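Quick one from the shared queue. A colleague (R.T.) flagged Stage 0 sporulation protein A homolog as missing a structural entry in our internal table.

Convert sequence to structure tokens.
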Amino acid sequence: MAHILIVEDEKSINDLIAMNLELVGHTSEQAYEGNEALEFLKHNTYSLIIMDIMLPGQDGFTLMKHVPENIPVIFLTAMGNLSDKVKGLNLGADDYIVKPFETIELLARIEAVLRRTNRSSKIFSLDSTVVNLESRVVTVNDSEIELTLREYELLEILINNINIALSREKLLKLAWEYDYFGETRTVDVHIQKLRKKLNWENRIKTVYKIGYRLEVDQ
């Protein structure tokens, strides 16, 4: 889908991001300090850069000046002051996320930036189902399938988080845009409808005591 550069000096965080990007179908390269990232930028092209600010060598703000204008950047940093956010965004960053962060939120922000910059694949295909993420047209065996707005929103969230278990509460918050107040049956009902309409009975897996996962072979 997208080729992403991760610039983060803390190896555990860098590796966590790389692992989750791979799970949802992206590829990545990992840099651990500013000068190393600059070398990557000289020889490679990326769909997106996820970058810390406090880095050995060149910091993220300085490195930002060397990033080509056509490559979107998400700052991922512990520097949460409003002045730092304003500075990062004024330098041209597309988003600014403060640590600690939730992986699901980071992946959602990544997909949002990729959509805005047209750097994410617009077509998702699995078995006999094809989803055009731009036109929102869904076909099964070349026949268009009608989905309600909530069914489609739920489908897109599953696609953007392939092979990741999502809780019912998280799906409610992302697809229905409200927090969990005790009733999650609506998620189960919509999942059952998606399974039937898309012939994904063996693709949308129930994760015991958690929620659901769209399972895709890597």
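The two ends are 12 Å apart (CA to CA).
The helical segments are 11-23, 34-43, 60-64, 82-90, 103-116, 149-160, 168-176, 185-198.
Added to the table.
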